[in-house]
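Students often ask what a holo structure prediction actually looks like on paper. The answer is less mysterious than it sounds. You provide the chain, you provide the ligand, and the output is a string of C-alpha cells encoding the 3D arrangement of the protein together with LLP.
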Amino acid sequence: MQNLFLTKERIEQLLEQYGSPVYVYSEAILRQKCADMRGLLGAENSHVSFSVKANTNLSILKIARDAGMYADAMSAGEIFLCKQAGFAPQEIFYVCNNVSADEMRYAVDQGLVVSIDSVNQMRVLASACPGARAAVRVNTEFGDGHSDKVVTAGKKTKFGVQLKFMQEVAEIAKAGNVKIVGLNQHIGSSVQNAKNYEAAANVLIDMALEFPELEILDFGGGFFVPYRPEEEDIDLDDLRAMFVRLHDRIVAEHPNGANISMRTEPGRYVVADCGILLGTVEDVKENFGKTYVGTDIGFNVLARPMLYDAYHHIVLPGHEGEQEQTVTVTGNICESGDILAKDRNLPIPNVGDPIVIQTAGAYGYVMSSVYNCRMRPAEVLIDLEGRDRLIRRRETIEDLLAPMLV
Ligand code: LLP
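The corresponding C-alpha cells follow.
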C-alpha cells in the first residue's frame, strides 16, 4: 500500500482551502504507476491503454497520455474526454458492451477500432458501419476479480464472445466488410491469481492463430492493487516475465506475430494509489454499545465500500499511535448501509478532525453521485513541484438546477 503522501499540516491546509471532502492526487505517483505498466511490455509496438473508466479527470488523462499511455474508453462520453485530453484516434481503443448503432457510428466516425462482444453486436456494427475496423472481445472462460461483481469473463458474466460463437462473428464481419484487426479480453478487476491472467491470455493467443491478419492482441487490465497494509504489491518482474513468454509465443506461432501490437488495459493499477480522499469527522456517537464515527464522506462520494464491501485504509492524522477502539465509520447519507468501514480498530477522533481514505484514485470520483442532493467534491492535483492545483471544482447547489426544465 502506498505511503500517505501528505503531512497532517498539508491535509489541513487542503481541506481549509478546497473544502471537505476533497479528492487529492499525486502526479509523481501517477507517473510512476504509468512507468511501471509501460515497463511490463518490452516490444516496441506494444502499448498500455489506461482504462479511463477508473478516473476520467481531464488533468489525470493528460498526464497519463504524456506518460506514454494509450486509452481504453467504453462510452461516447469517455471517447469525448479522451479526445479532449489529446489522445489520437489510433491511441483510443473503444471496448463497449450493449451499445446502439449510433454509439458505434460515433466511435467509427472518430476513427476508432471498435471491440465487439456478441454475435448481434457484430451484426449492428456491420450494418451501421460497413468498412469499420473491429476487434472481438473473447470470453476465454477464465474469470477473476476482487468481487463477483467485477469478474468479467467466465461462465457467469455477460461479457465477451464465447469461443463457440467466434466463427459466426467472423463470418458476419466478413460478409459485412468489417475487418477484424484485433482480439481482446478482460478477465476481471484486481485479479487475485495471476495464473488466471496468463491462462486466459494463452487461450486468446490460441484464438489469434485463426486470424492471420491480426494487428492487435489486448490481454486486458485487472492487475491487483493492495488496499490493506498487510497486502503485498504485485511483483512487476514476475509480470514482465509473463509478458515475455506471451510475446515470444505470438512471434513464434502467429504468421503476423512480429507486427502484432500487444496491449494491456489497466485502470486501477494506474490511478488507485495516486489518489486519496480527505474528509472531516462530523460526529462521534454511541448507539446500543457501538461507537460510530460520522463523517462527510457518504457513499455518494465513495461508493466502493457500500457496493463491494471494499476495504479502504483509514488514517486519522494526528492520532497515530493512540489507543484504538473498534468503531464503525459512516457517511452522511440517509441509509444504514452508508458505511465506510465496519468494526475497524481506530483511535477515537474529535469532531472537526480530518480523516483520510487511502487508495481512492480508482473508481472513486467516477462513481460518485449527487444522491441526497449532496454535491460531488472537488479534485486537487499535487504537481511534481509539490504545488496544489484545483483540477475540478466542487459542485454547487446551483448545479442541481442546470439540467432541469421547469
Ligand atoms: N478493460 C475493461 C474492458 C474493463 O471492463 C475494465 C474494468 C478494465 C479494463 C480495467 O480494469 P482494472 O485494471 O481497473 O481492474 N468499479 C469497480 C471496478 C470495475 C471494473 C470494470 N472494468 C471497483 O471499484 O472495484
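The pocket of LLP is lined by residues 51, 53-54, 72, 95, 150, 152, 186, 189-190, 220-223, 265-269, 304, 308, 363 (CB under 6 Å).
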